[in-house]
């Protein structure tokens, strides 16, 4: 590596690179150049100190991070031409490489097969468990990562759920062993077991990898920490890079105490703080620092901006989610008008369900967008299931919709039975509903399945009856009867799906309230007609959860849903400090300008609820001098000049709240018209 590479480092980065032997924690704040520091240190060890590439091991969490770091490191290293490249990979790739050479020590053959997530689900389904597959899968993964065997799991059961998990876990492990398969968790579990059972091999492996570095150390779990202890059994040359303030994966097993207690877990630890931030303005970092300072369990650091002061964080206040989407749309259209590219803008949310109103607002405003790391609201499986039920209620002869939900939730009508029904009736050219009414199914399916179908369509008919009485009565009956998601499943994915379903029910109720004369059929048709503004050229606004945004950065960031219950997300198992870390991550995605939005009310659990603004606004010091834009009061006032894409320029002569929008009385050169505010722009 050249001396110029070292000249471009700040004093803290340079100190980290010059530290050779002994454990070191590089506490790297957001945007502080941690990847640059880590890759330069690897190049320094090889080029300046003379450490063989084969004696180094650098571990990451994602293939993307590993690829980026490998590319940058190889660009820096000059003395590796006669050596093999340094091993820079994910924890699990390291485990895979290790098992290929050592799995025989467990009595397993070396030609094992690594199964993926879909394979795992199929295997688990084959045991016909009495609990949701997602619940079983996540619990087995947790047991493995805590090194709990099936027999140990059986010995500690406290309820029927745990008993069922333990039973399936035992069957699953027996199946994998019989077929010589390993799953993703096994790559680390079996690696640790081999090292633990073979002290000589552990010593040999540790002596081989004399210098170990770990990226994103705050995301390590207990098993990864124990594995690192084995790899460092003969030395203490472990350099970890991480940020306790960005530890946001506790729900999937990350153990923040690994980084908090690093100085106690290893001897004579050197701690270096990277606090110079190259990404965000001082105003953005001021809010982020103030927010995270309210956490008690942290090592403590304060980001300092290299970019300068910048604009104040802007608070957007709306009455409800529709106005919120309209206000954000207006702000973004103004940015685009000023020449800002769509790819420089992101909208973040804590709960995926909040994307629904944002999507609707962007579609109306004709703003190109893309949902990143998730699925568009109406394309989500649980929403498609509900829509299929509603379409079947409107038209019981709709076999296309029936095919999707005939066994959702499970009612014993399996795949073979479904194929027999639909194939037979395709010849008859009649619907399943009609065939049932004409008693033409008894020769096709079993008496038990026939009775189940009778009960199913009786329920559909009952829904139709309730709908004829009152749409509100119907939706209450529907939501209390149809359970698409098992509420006993407390996995993060299941909770997210429940939020999506509640958002959909709330939207339907709002539709009825705003348009009581419209029918369920009108509602479904309006949804079908709503355009999806999918960009063709890749120039789009990025919309994503805060979790998906970690590691990314944008010039302009909008955070939506800053209310108690949504951000922070408040439920029994919530960790308010992790929620605060999520807020910190969200803030520090913004480079130039940050907009934070909250509303007075949203539909929540099927009802419109008044909400309190997020406590994080106060904690971040944003309820004092910061500029607040209220959609109702600040966006429009009498006398404002506006423009309309058809009627041209006009002046507001009256403002009136109407449902979830604002109606403006506008004079277009003497011709007065009532126009909804979301269809005009200032100026």
What do you see in this structure?
- By secondary structure, this protein is α/β, with parallel strands linked by helices.
- It contains 29 helices and 24 strands.
- A seven-stranded parallel β-sheet has the order 13-14-12-15-16-11-19.
- The protein is flat.
- The model has no long low-confidence stretch (mean pLDDT 87).
Give the termini separation. 55 Å
Q: Which structural class is indicated by helix and strand composition?
A: alpha/beta
Estimate the mean pLDDT confidence: 87
Spans of at least 5 consecutive residues with low confidence: none
Describe the structure concisely:
With 683 residues, the chain is an alpha/beta fold.
Give the SSE map:
Blueprint: H1 3-7, H2 11-18, E1 24-28, H3 34-49, E2 56-60, H4 63-76, E3 87-90, H5 91-102, E4 113-114, H6 117-125, H7 133-145, H8 150-155, H9 160-179, E5 181-182, H10 186-197, H11 199-208, E6 211-214, H12 222-231, E7 238-242, H13 257-260, H14 262-265, E8 270-274, E9 276-277, H15 282-292, E10 304-305, E11 314-318, H16 321-337, E12 345-349, H17 355-365, E13 369-371, H18 381-394, H19 399-405, H20 415-428, H21 432-437, H22 447-469, H23 471-481, H24 492-514, H25 520-529, E14 541-545, H26 546-549, E15 554-560, H27 576-587, E16 590-599, E17 601-604, E18 607-610, H28 615-619, E19 628-630, H29 631-635, E20 641-644, E21 648-658, E22 661-668, E23 671-676, E24 680-682
Parallel strand pairs: 1-7, 1-8, 2-3, 2-6, 4-5, 6-7, 9-10, 11-16, 11-19, 12-14, 12-15, 13-14, 15-16
Antiparallel strand pairs: 17-18, 20-21, 20-24, 21-22, 22-23
Helix pairs in contact: 2-3, 3-4, 5-10, 6-7, 10-11, 10-12, 15-27, 16-17, 18-19, 18-22, 22-23, 23-24
């Amino acid at each position: 590596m050249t001396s110029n590479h070292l000249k471009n480092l700040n004093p803290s980065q340079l100190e980290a690179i010059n530290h050779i032997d002994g454990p070191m924690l590089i506490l790297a704040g957001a945007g502080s150049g941690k990847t640059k520091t880590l890759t330069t240190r690897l190049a320094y060890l090889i080029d300046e100190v003379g450490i063989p590439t084969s004696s180094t091991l650098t571990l990451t969490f994602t293939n993307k991070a590993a690829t980026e770091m490998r590319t940058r490191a190889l660009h820096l290293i000059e003395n590796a031409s006669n050596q093999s490249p340094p091993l820079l990979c994910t924890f699990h790739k390291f485990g895979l490489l290790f098992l290929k050479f050592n799995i025989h020590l467990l009595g397993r053959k070396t030609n094992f097969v690594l199964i993926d997530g879909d394979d795992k689900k199929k295997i688990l389904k084959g045991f016909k468990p009495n609990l949701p597959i997602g619940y079983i899968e996540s619990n087995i993964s947790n047991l493995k990562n805590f090194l709990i065997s099936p027999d140990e799991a059986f010995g500690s059961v406290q309820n029927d759920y745990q008993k069922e998990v333990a039973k399936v876990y035992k069957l699953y492990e027996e199946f994998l062993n019989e077929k010589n398969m390993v799953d993703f968790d096994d790559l680390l579990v079996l690696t640790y077991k081999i090292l633990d059972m073979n002290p000589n091999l552990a010593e040999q492996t540790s002596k081989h990898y004399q210098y170990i570095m770990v990226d994103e150390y705050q995301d390590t779990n207990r098993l990864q920490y124990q594995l690192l202890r084995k790899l460092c059994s003969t030395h203490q040359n472990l350099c970890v890079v991480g940020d306790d303030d960005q530890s946001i994966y506790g729900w999937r097993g990350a153990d923040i105490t690994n980084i908090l207690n690093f100085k106690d877990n290893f001897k004579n630890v050197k701690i270096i703080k990277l606090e110079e931030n190259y990404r965000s303005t001082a105003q953005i970092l001021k809010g982020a620092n103030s927010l995270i300072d309210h956490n008690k369990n942290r090592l403590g650091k304060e980001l300092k901006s290299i970019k300068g002061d910048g604009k104040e964080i802007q608070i957007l206040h709306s009455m409800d989610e529709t106005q919120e989407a309209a206000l954000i749309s207006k702000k973004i259209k103004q940015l685009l008008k000023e020449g800002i590219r769509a790819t420089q803008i992101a909208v973040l949310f804590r709960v995926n369900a909040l994307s629904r109103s944002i999507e609707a607002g962007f579609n109306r405003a004709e703003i190109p967008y893309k949902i990143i790391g998730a699925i568009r609201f109406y394309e989500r499986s649980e929403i498609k299931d509900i829509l299929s039920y509603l379409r079947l209620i409107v038209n019981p002869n709709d076999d296309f919709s029936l095919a999707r939900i005939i066994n959702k939730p499970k009612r014993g009508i399996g795949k073979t039975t479904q194929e027999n029904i639909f194939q037979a009736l395709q010849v008859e050219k009649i619907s399943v509903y009609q065939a049932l009414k004409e008693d033409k199914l008894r020769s096709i399916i079993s008496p038990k399945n026939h009775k189940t179908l009778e009960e199913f369509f009786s329920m559909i008919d009952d829904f139709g009856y309730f709908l004829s009485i009152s749409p509100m009565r119907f939706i209450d009956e529907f939501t209390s009867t149809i359970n698409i998601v098992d509420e006993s499943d407390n996995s993060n994915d299941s909770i997210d799906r429940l939020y999506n379903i509640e958002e959909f029910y709330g939207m339907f109720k709002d539709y009825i309230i705003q348009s009581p004369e419209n029918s369920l059929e009108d509602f479904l048709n309006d949804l079908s007609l709503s355009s999806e503004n999918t960009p063709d050229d890749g120039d789009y606004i990025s919309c994503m959860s805060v979790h998906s945004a970690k590691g990314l950065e944008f010039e302009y960031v909008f955070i939506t849903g800053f209310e108690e219950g949504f951000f922070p997300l408040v439920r029994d198992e919530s960790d308010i400090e992790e929620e605060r870390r999520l807020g910190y991550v969200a803030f520090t995605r913004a480079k130039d300008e940050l907009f934070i939005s909250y509303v007075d009310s949203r539909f929540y659990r099927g009802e419109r609820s008044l909400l309190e603004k997020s406590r994080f606004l106060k904690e971040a010091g944003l309820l004092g001098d910061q500029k607040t834009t209220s959609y109702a009061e600040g966006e429009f006032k009498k006398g404002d000049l506006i423009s309309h894409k058809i009627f041209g320029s006009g002046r507001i002569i009256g403002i009136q709240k109407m449902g979830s929008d604002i109606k403006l009385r506008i004079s277009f050169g003497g011709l007065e018209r009532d126009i909804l505010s979301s269809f005009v722009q200032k100026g």
